[in-house]
Structure formats: C-alpha cells, structure tokens
Amino acid sequence: MSFETTMTSDVVGLTKVAPLSRRGFMSATAAVAAGYTLAAGPVRADIITTDTSGLQAGDAKIKVGSEEMPAYFAGPAGNAKAPVVIVAMEIFGLHEYIRDVTRRLAKLGAFAVAPDYYFRKGIDLTKVTDIKELLPVVNAKPDAELLSDLDATVAWAGSQGGDTTKLGIIGFCRGGRTVWEYAAHSGALKAGVAFYGTLVDPANPLWPKSPLQLAPEMKAPVLGLYGGADTGIPVAQVEQMKAALEQSKKTADFKIYPEAPHGFHADYRGSYRKDAAEDAWKQAEAWFKKHGVLS
C-alpha cells in the first residue's frame, strides 16, 4: 500500500466507529442538498445549525502563488478588528459542518476563516462519497504547501481587517493534525485547539515530521481534545505526546473523553457525542480566551 492510499490513524478512527441504525439520519439526497459530505457515512437529522444574524459571512478567494484558494469566512458584522481564527477542516473538504463551525466561532467574536487547501486537485471533496477516493488527494498534500496556504490565509484575514496579533487555529480530525503542525511553524500563533488530531504519521516523504516529532518545536500553546474510545489514536499515544511536550517545557493541555470515539464533535455523524462535544467546545473557548485570542 502506497502512502497515498494509507489508512492514517484519523481515518482508521473514523471508519471503525460502531454502526448505528439508519433511524435519525437524513436521506442521502437531503444530506447533499444541505451541503454535507456523504463520505463519512449517513448524516444525522438533528444537526446543529448556526445562523448568520449579526455576522458577515460568505465565500472568498485567497491568493496563493499564482492560484486562488477557495475559503469560507464568518465574523461579527461591523467589527473590523476581530481576532482571527483559522478553521482546519477534516478530509471531507469545505462542507456544511466546517462552515457552521466557522459561524459558531464568529458568534464568539472571531473573524474565522476555513481555507479549502485541497483545491489544487480540482476535485470537490464534499461530493466524493467513498473515503478511499479521498485518501490519494488528502494524503498527497505536502506539509510545506499546507503551511504556506495557512500563512496566506492569515495574511488574507489581516487584509480584511482581522486582528492577526490575536491569531488562533482550530482543527478537527486531519485538521487537528494541522493544528499541531502549524503551532510548530508559526511564530505569530497565539493558541491552537486540536480535536482528535493524528499525532504519529505513517511514512510519507511529503510529511517530514509528525506532531510527536515536532513537540520540541511548538511555538504556541495547544489544547488537545481526544476520545478515549478512538480506535485510531490510542490514549497511550496522547500520553506520549503530553510527555514529549512536558519534557520540552511546552505549554499544552489535554482532555480525554473516556467514552467518546473519533469524531465526537462532528454533529452530522453517528460518532457525535453531545456531552463530550459541548464540553470540548467550552474548553476550546476558554483556551482561546486564556491565551489572548478571544476577549
């Protein structure tokens, strides 16, 4: 198996969540119409929806080299100097769940931006229904290009009036890994929040260092939120990361939700666990406030 099609630990955790009955889920047609991915399985009927009242929100194009990267943004209406929070998506592209999370952050006072950094492959990941078709696209994203895309996103947010001196990043699943990687890269970052982000990578020449290997290089405090029942990211690995950060005297905190599987915050999926998700969101908000991102 080549690294392009490797089932990384985030994907393993995603695909091994206990199956649920089809009751309480939308039809595939309704899910697609609502803007949700089908690659993660059936979409729950009682998803969280955040409106745009009091917000400015919409699609944007961010210049990256000679190309334009699609993005979705949301921020408080009329607030020119809102803190900037980058939203790092899962492997499913810029679908409705990620857009909704962006609006939730805007309701907390942030100018939140979710960049679609897989755009160069010319495939709309939100429309792909088989996870195996996603892997060659997302696993072939070089870290160097990813970090450059995130830097361009920050610069764009600043050009739109966002306050990049109060910069945060939040990510889910593969985006959780992105949080760790960006925290080791960006000297401008104030804080990161990683929801069940992979800590140890398979061998991939495009990903020179895993988050665990980058522990000594962390430049910003990161909060790691993990599920004790995640079949892809064992608790022992989380403890290993915690120890590596402590050894390097880096500021980080972890919360493990014992019964929660991978994807416990994803309210559109069967993996959603309401109590863990709500508590984790409160922890994320408190972390950003503690480290000067949110006021």
From TrEMBL:
Membrane spanning stretches: none
Enzyme Commission code: 3.1.1.45
Sample GO molecular function, one term: carboxymethylenebutenolidase activity
Superkingdom of source: Bacteria
Keyword Zinc applies: no
Domain Dienelactone hydrolase: 69-291
Gene3D superfamilies: alpha/beta hydrolase
InterPro entries: AB_hydrolase_fold (IPR029058), Dienelactn_hydro (IPR002925), Dienelactone_hydrolase-like (IPR051049), TAT_signal (IPR006311)
UniProt entry keywords in alphabetical sequence: Hydrolase
Name of this chain's protein: Carboxymethylenebutenolidase
Native species: Bradyrhizobium yuanmingense
